[in-house]
Every structure is written in C-alpha cells, then in structure tokens.
Design goal:
6 helices; 85% helix; mainly alpha; 188 residues
C-alpha cells in the first residue's frame, strides 16, 4: 500500500530536519576549529617573531612576516565564510521544521488541505535556508536504524573517506608549523 501524503511529508520533514541539525553542528565545529587554529597560529607567529628578534635572524624575520600575512588572510577568510552565522541560520531552520512536524502530528490523514498547507510551508523553509551537503545525510544514515535509510557501499566509502580527509587536514594544519620550525632549526 502506498504511504499517505501526510506520511511522506512527515518523513521528508523529519529527514530534512535531522540533516539540517547535522549541517548546523558541522558548520559550528568548523567555526570553533578555525578559531582555535587562528589562536594557535597567532601564538606560533608571536613566538617566531620573538625568536627572530633575539637572534637577529633576517631569514626568520621574513618567515615570520610571511606567516603573519598568511594568518591575516586566514582570519579574513574565516570571517567571510561565516560558519557560525550559517550554523545559526540552519538551527533556526530546523527549529521551524520541528514546528511543522508538531503541526503535522495534529492533523488527520484525510485532511488533505491542511497537509498541503504544511507542504507549502515546508517548501518555503527549504528555500529560506542553505541546503545540507551529502556528508550530513550520510551521518543521518549512519546513526539511524531504519533499513530505508541504510548507507549503500558507495555512500559508506564516501562517508568514511570524507571523515578521514577532514581529520587528516585538521591534523596536518596543527602539525605544519611545528614541523616547519623543527626543520628550520635542524637545517640551520
């Protein structure tokens, strides 16, 4: 038997809401990571500058200046990307989706006009916010026990590759200045 319009809409809103929650958390995580990274790099540049001043090392001063410029550009990028604001916007959107789910739960299956009205509101909410990306859907599928939301082998591979890539990048960005500093002082 074909599921009712209300059942389909309920499922679609629920899935969208969960994906938007995942997207909001992902963006907030990016924002926090970038803030921590900027503080970390700022401290590194300050230490590098102090060492270059005390050692009167022109090459180290040039490296320090280059790092300072790169840090300034990354801070500007972080502000322009607006991860925290985008996360907040998605949060507002998934709260409004929850209100639609609550309204939908109070409607009878046969009340087609009310279901269609909620469907229109759902479409408006979809248009009012940025969409999530596939990894947010994969995360929903990984954490869900519904067989209809199981990850395919390709999705599973993609999900775990994306996670691994994210953590490798994050780790590399943390280790990069330390590795560069060690290499500089060993080769000097």
């Amino acid at each position: 038997m074909e599921p009712s319009l209300k059942t389909k809409l309920d499922r679609n809103i629920w899935i969208t809401r969960k994906c938007r929650i995942n997207a909001s958390e992902r963006l907030l995580s990016h924002a926090k990571y970038i803030e921590i990274l900027n503080v970390y790099y700022s401290i590194f540049v300050i230490i590098l500058s102090l060492i270059s001043l005390t050692k009167q090392d022109n090459l180290l001063s040039m490296i320090s200046l280059s790092c300072s410029i790169a840090l300034t550009i990354s801070i500007i990028y972080a502000n322009v990307a607006g991860y925290r604001e985008r996360s907040s916007s998605l949060k507002q959107n998934y709260i409004e989706l929850q209100l639609l789910l609550d309204q939908l739960s109070c409607i009878d299956d046969n009340d087609t006009d009310s279901v269609v009205n909620i469907s229109v509101k759902y479409a408006e909410l979809l248009k009012s916010s940025e969409n999530h990306i596939p990894i947010d859907m994969y995360q929903l599928k990984v954490s869900n026990t519904d067989p209809g939301l199981a990850l395919s082998k390709e999705e599973k591979r993609s999900y775990y590759c994306q996670l691994a890539w994210r953590y490798l990048w994050r780790g590399a960005l943390i280790l990069l200045p330390l590795a560069a500093a060690i290499l500089y002082f060993v080769l000097r």
